[in-house]
Amino acid sequence: MNNTVTILDRSTPPKPGPYPKVAFPAFECASISNGLDVWTVSNHDQPIVSLSLYIRGGSACDPRGREGLAASVVDLLTKGTHRRSATKIADEIDFVGGSLSASAGWDALTINVSVLTKYLDVAVDLISDVIQFSTFPEEEIERMRLQRLASLRQAKSDAGFLADVVFSKLVFPGHPYGQQSGGTERSISEITREDIVRFAKEYITPSDAFVVASGDISPDSFRKLLDTNLSSWSGSARKTPVLGNAKPLHSRKVGLINREGAVQSALRVGHIGIPRNHPDFIPLSVMNVLLGGYFNSRINLNLREVHGYTYGARSAFDTRMAAGPFAVSTEVRTEVTTRAVEEILSEITRLTVEEVAADELQMVKNYMIGNFPLQIETPQQVAGRVATLVLFGIERDYWDTYREKLSAITSVDLYRVAQQYLHPSTLAIVASGDVQALEAGMGEFGEMNVFNDEGTVIERPISV
Amino acid sequence: MIEAPLEIGAVASEELPSGFIAFEEHRLENGLRVILHEDHSSAVVCLNIAYHVGSKNESVHRRGFAHLFEHLLFDGSRNVPRGSFDVYITQAGGNDNAYTTEDKTNYYEVLPSNQLELALWLESDRMLEFAVSEIALATQKQVVKEEKRERYDNTPYGSMTIRMNRLAYRTYPYWWAVIGDMETIDAASLTDVRNFFEAFYVPSNAVLVLAGDFDPSHALERIRHYFEGIPNAPSVPIVQPPFDEPEFLEEQREIVDSEPIPLPAVFYAYRIPSEGSRECHALDLLTTILSSGESSRLYQSLVYDLQIASEASSFVDGREMPGLLYLYAVHSTPDGGTQELEAAIEQIIGEVISKGITSEELQKAKNKTEAMTVASRVTVNGKADQLAHTALMFGDTGRVNTILDEYNSIKMEEIRAAAERYLRPANRCAVLYHLNRALPQE
Fold first, then answer.
1. Are B58 and B175 contacting, i.e. CB atoms less than 8 angstroms apart?
2. How near does any CA of chain B get to the CA of A371, in Å?
3. pTM for this model (two decimals)
């Protein structure tokens, strides 16, 4: 055997085997007696269950001046009900080794539990209690306020967070997506119990909600368990209103946030993108992967591997109910910040002026098609993809034909979407870093403002 | 020619324990240990190779080298030119990554199952012979330095682990952080790279785990095909540095007031026995009782009742040699003092030592440990990583399936006794962050 091995020809890579049959796992949907839709993905590999309750209408519904309200409401859901104190709720879920959490996304509130199968009834009992019978006690509201203010302070010492805040402000002026979903020090200080109770009453209702559960469950008995616990859940007949898109920028905006003496700048470059439920979502995803969506993308190779400016650089279309942001994000050392922006702009521009070579596109498609089985490896990943279909109203067989749709994308398609959706001359460029070192160079890119850590413009003399 | 496997991780009873991972283990002629876990639940395979070399094996003058080397191993081997490793993997639809600790360096690829052989080809080529160029070395030094800036220098409290290791170890090569220092990273030469490769990147110093959708006998034949011919010729015998530091006789303390931070904070680290020891298990369960979930002692006291902390947590940083138990609290307001955080922590630890824990707390911690273990074994990569880690660190892969039993056998008194033995002020290192009013307010 050794002899054969020593003459092994290693010079060319081995050929892959036949492509494995990968079907998107089966899932089903049925309603329980109060009309709530329950989607289930069964997989008995490990004795664990995840359950997410989605309630449409998230941080995008925060009233002006009450930024962070949706996030505050979900914080408080698990902090006391008619039957249980906050500590009792924590005790019960912790005792079975499970987790119970709630979060506010832009388009939906979600309440998540993850628990070993043998304790599923404990988790369902808790989730049913917190969505129906939360009491929002004053003392818990004050605790929440203190916690949120402390985490805001922590976040504001993070260069990336500050860059995100200012970037959203510049890209979505006057639009809910330009607000801070976690609130500001001012809005969090001003939120009242009445705001919280009103928001909860209006939004936490089964009429615009659904459940996605995955893992070690059998759909019939799982729905029976939910029905037993949730059939009494009722509420307003609210349907979430449709959120319009923000207006695109007409010129380049540059935003700086000062972090004196910072060794790196957190950079964000981009503009408005598209909503999730958009017919060009797939060609744009392919274009984005090529630009900055994987390790071998143009932007990462350029900034990291060719120039060594950064540990990593990426681009993304954050697609939501309405058009979300497209952004290139990276952290680069202070002295190369301007050059990094030039490289980013040139990579964006290049896509709009020259067609992508067939082999480069093929590489991206190979990656995306080949990677799909890895993205649906766990029941929870599958459940996340099912939730995307439900939340954004996408056709039910979308994932079944996903790889065929990727496969059909051509260089012509990419060129078309790049020209249509990339706007290198009307975008926002934000750097959070050492302003003194950055302002001369960054001012070259467009109309520049310096912001404080609250995200408001600081009036200052123009330096020449 | 395939002989019987050395070990089969199967049990006779029908009721498999939570998170059970069936496996078989082989050893190739060159000393490479091979572990196979077959799982057809999705069309994915993971190749995970762990080398028994980490930052504790680097020269004191090349601090950060093991991690820099990890970056370089993606940058050229005999038949895989610079830049093409990741291209091959992504072209196949795969993901790859690597990480370095004080004790080991781990590389993995997750791929659609028809691409198994590609992973074997790539990993065997770089185990056989690296081919790193000056330009690759220069670029990766920059990338690693940016990684250090991003994660350690430009992040609030980012200097903590660097400072803590320095306090917690006097001479043992755990005294520097895995990321190393700018100057010692810069000092690395191609000769260092070659020497390090020849010293540590040899088959007998590695464990190869393949997990996922494959036929084990075919896979083993392919593994032999690619790996068995790699010579096992370490330039010097590999000896893990023995731990010879005496116990501390008094607390080691550092106050940091020169860094921009949002809120005052207290970080403690206690030196504790090696990972896998019974006392380390007991202390691991104790950290779960102290800080896992909102019913935990630290959360209930510091965050919920006293409201002096915005977060408070603890965890075990288990290592091959004596590791650390971290315990920390971040104040809830900028004006708060670290003294009140320290007093509250002291009281909680004092109560554990004097009164012990309750049987309900112990059961909760065991339930949490079981749930976390199961959750970490849902993906093929999660399973492969645990097999590789167990094989490399404990020498006994079968412990991957008995570790929960070990935890479940821990008694209340063992936890109290471990707390008394190790959570003493004299065995403690403290890094305190105070706001510096002279700095711009964050």
1. no
2. 4
3. 0.90
